[in-house]
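Try this one yourself first.
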């Protein structure tokens, strides 16, 4: 029998609080759950009622509830209030892990089909049979069996490895860092989209190099602008995320790719193609690596098309003598990709499980996109058929940072545009991830809450 909702007259004990008050509210919720004073399904006081009771402003209480939601203690239900999500008796342990997902990261929807999840578990158990061997060091760059599986996987994207060398890395971030470390000399700069992957900004800072953001239109970066900056700066590399770009969801058409390649060839600029989302569309444009193999360092990870926990990426380097240098850098910073994860990825690929998981993510992403269209619509959100993130522009009466702060208590992850911009100027927009641990109903409720907020200022 379903448990009835209990509306509780709850008051946090904030005496002796040293840190921020909103964190203290979340901590009190955690402690009262632990002690049994709060239990699953309890309906907490409204934010305004609690604020009046304890003499704080509503914003502080809202942030406290949002922090509790972020760490999985409560759930905000649109139009209903805030409810306790979990209950644990003292001393009780759980085999299930708490929801520790980092919602600031872009991630595909969780696989929820029981039969498919069972296959994933069985594959993990099968790989476990060789765990002793997999716990040993392996050659940096991957072993033959895993490289064979990688080549098999890349063919699904139309990638042929005959003009590249293949390295298996501990995720795309490590691959990008290694490539740029080899390409750049002191004073060299990297050109990129003006709104780009935040990880690139962090890598550039670590390498003490500068990024030059390029203006763009609805097809991608402006080739003429690349020509101009190539003459003005020491541009040694061009970083592109040309398919289902993070965060704007754009895909660069074939014609624009050819124009960009022409400029890069003329100026001897290496292209770093981050194809993180390239496997999601059923019929994506050809990879730049296949159009300009002599220029392109191609990187595709499994995090976005299969799952972030499978932190493996495949790096193709042109056959120009730099492969050994890249491999040496990878070995210096990460030694090797995890043999356990590499073996699991290979098992998924060779058994066909990877194809099944990818198909599930594609199908679920299309459903989420339809929910997005029904709630926010194209007036506010740009999205793509098979992508699981949207680029959202709120009404001018709201700033993107305001919306991001107000959505922290909901199931979807929102990230301010300032995290993606190369310059200090940034549009009033934010990236909204439609994937991760949120199910369809949580997705709908979160999107309805954002739509209600937008409507309230119209």
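Now uncover the answer:
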């Amino acid at each position: 029998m379903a448990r009835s909702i209990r509306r509780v007259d709850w008051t946090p004990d904030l005496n002796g609080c040293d840190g921020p008050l909103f964190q203290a509210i979340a901590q009190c919720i955690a402690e009262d759950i632990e002690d049994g004073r709060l239990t699953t399904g309890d309906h907490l006081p409204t934010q305004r009622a609690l604020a009046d009771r304890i003499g704080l402003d509503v914003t502080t209480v809202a942030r406290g509830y949002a922090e509790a939601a972020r760490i999985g203690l409560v759930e905000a239900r649109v139009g209903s209030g805030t409810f306790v999500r979990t209950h644990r008796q003292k001393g009780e342990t759980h085999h299930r892990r708490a929801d520790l997902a980092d919602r600031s990261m872009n991630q595909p929807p969780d696989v929820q089909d029981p039969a498919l999840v069972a296959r994933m578990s069985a594959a993990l158990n099968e790989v476990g049979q060789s765990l002793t061997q997999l716990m040993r060091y392996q050659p940096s760059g991957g072993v033959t069996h895993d490289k064979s599986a990688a080549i098999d996987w890349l063919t699904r994207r139309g990638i042929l490895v005959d003009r590249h060398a293949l390295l298996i890395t501990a995720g795309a971030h490590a691959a990008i860092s290694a490539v740029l470390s080899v390409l750049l000399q002191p004073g060299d700069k990297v050109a990129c989209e003006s709104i780009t992957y935040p990880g690139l900004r962090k890598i550039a800072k670590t390498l003490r190099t500068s990024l030059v953001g390029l203006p763009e239109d609805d097809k991608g970066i402006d080739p003429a602008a690349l020509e101009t900056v190539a003459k003005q700066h020491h541009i040694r590399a061009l970083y592109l995320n040309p398919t289902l770009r993070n965060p704007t969801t754009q895909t660069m058409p074939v014609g624009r790719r050819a124009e960009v390649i022409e400029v890069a060839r003329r100026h001897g600029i290496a292209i770093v193609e981050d194809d993180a989302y390239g496997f999601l569309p059923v019929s994506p444009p050809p990879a730049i690596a296949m159009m300009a193999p002599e220029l392109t360092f191609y990187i595709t990870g499994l995090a976005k098309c299969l799952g972030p926990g499978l932190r493996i990426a495949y790096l193709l380097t042109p056959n120009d003598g730099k492969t050994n240098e890249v491999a040496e850098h990878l070995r210096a910073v990460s030694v090797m990709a995890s043999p356990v994860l590499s073996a699991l990825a290979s098992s998924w690929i060779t058994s066909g499980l990877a194809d099944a998981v990818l198909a599930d993510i594609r199908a679920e992403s299309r459903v989420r996109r339809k929910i997005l269209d029904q709630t926010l619509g194209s007036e506010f959100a740009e999205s793509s058929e098979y992508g699981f993130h949207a680029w959202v522009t709120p009404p001018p009466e709201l700033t993107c940072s305001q919306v991001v702060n107000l959505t922290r208590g909901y199931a979807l992850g929102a990230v301010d545009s300032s995290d993606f911009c190369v310059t200090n100027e940034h549009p009033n927009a934010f990236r909204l991830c439609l994937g991760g641990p949120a199910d369809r109903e949580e997705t709908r409720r979160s999107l309805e809450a954002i739509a209600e907020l937008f409507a309230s200022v119209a």
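Discussion: The longest strand covers residues 164-169. Residues 353-375 form the longest helix (23 residues).
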